[in-house]
Amino acid sequence: MRILVTGASGLIGCHATAALLEVGHEVAVLARSAGKVEAALQPLGRSARDIEIVAGDLADPESLRRALARREGLVHGAGLFSPARADAALLQRTNVEGTRSVLEAAADAGLARIVHLSSMLALFPPRGPVMTAEDSVAHPRSMYAITKAQAEAIARDLQSRAPITIVYPAAVHGPFDPTFSIGPQNVATALRTRRALVTEGGLPNTDVRDLAALVVAIFAGRVAPSRVMAPSFFLTHAEYRALLERITGHSVRALALPGFAMRLLGRCGDLAQRLGRDVTLTFEAAEVLTRSVPIDDRIARAALGREPIPAERSYRDLIRWMADAGHLARADAGRA
């Protein structure tokens, strides 16, 4: 199938591109910078020679029409994460209006299959002990989560006239991350300082390689529902700290903080934001850290025909890659 990928210079997009190429699809990518795409694909054993690069932007309708011409499928993975207030307008343009533009253009072009990579944050907070793809769209308060919920509403509305499959990744990480995103940064900090936050609850994790395999399964017709939770494994914060110890052989001290204290700090973060300061720990972020639940990924597991990559292998591969790439000293990576 001839498939267009947006966001191919990012973690999810480059892995999805490589996985689609591996099974024989013809892949084109929409990109402002061919160099960034090349740099993202090279560690995965691919190069710009393996794909067609269409110069363009989500905000440019003509470049979208050009990119979608002669395509049969679309993977929309382009997006922006930032906690900075100065980026509020850019988040809105990229995550909301960009999603509207590309999905509407794909629907108008009559594509046979469209995959929209959403986020579990579009459905947060959970309605029960397990989060499912049938949960309703949330009404978040933080800048980034607001844009993901708005994009989610757009995608669901367009499902009435286009074959859109919405995928909900959890906290995504994996090796060969061209942006060295916030998840690996937090792991590196924990290993450098030998300290990890231990509070109430935990987080569902999605290994990017499992997410890419799910995208392949969707284009192979192995996913029937229009909405599906990505493959995941759930770790409490205490389990995460112990996992880092086992993988590296280092002692990692627990920074214990009750859930209510985390949420109180988040309230302080909200106040600081209203006063014009950039903060990462908002109340909503504190709720994600302390009140996340496992996700129902049974459909994704069935489509993959296997269990997700285990937590220990996932984090070991991530830490080994961070050391190889120079993001983490080998001494801090320990026996990983």
Strand content: 15-25%
Structural class comes to alpha/beta
Residue share in helix: 40-55%
The tally of strands reads 12
Instruction: For the record, give the distance between the C-alpha atoms at the N and C termini, rounded to a whole number.
Output: 39 Å
Radius of gyration based on Cα positions: 19 Å
Overall body shape = globular
Q: What is the element string, with H for helices and E for strands?
A: EHEHEHEHEHEEHEEHEEHEHHHHH
Query: Based on the structure, what is the oligomeric state of the protein chains?
Result: single chain
The level 1 CATH classification of one domain is: Alpha Beta
Strand order of the largest sheet: 3-2-1-4-5-6-10
Described by strand count, sense and barrel closure, the largest sheet is: 7 strands, parallel
If helices are DSSP runs of H or I spanning 4 or more residues, what is the number of helices? 13
Write down the CATH topology of one domain.
Rossmann fold
Overall average pLDDT: 94
Q: Which CATH-level-2 architecture of one domain? A: 3-Layer(aba) Sandwich
CATH superfamily name of one domain?
A: NAD(P)-binding Rossmann-like Domain
Give an account of the 3D structure.
The radius of gyration is 19 Å and the shape is globular. The longest helix is centred in the first third of the chain and has 21 residues, at 88-108. It is 45% helix and 16% strand. The protein has a seven-stranded parallel sheet, with helices on both faces. Strands 7-9-11 form a three-stranded mixed sheet. α4 links the parallel β4 (73-76) and β5 (113-117). The chain has 336 residues and is of the alpha/beta class.
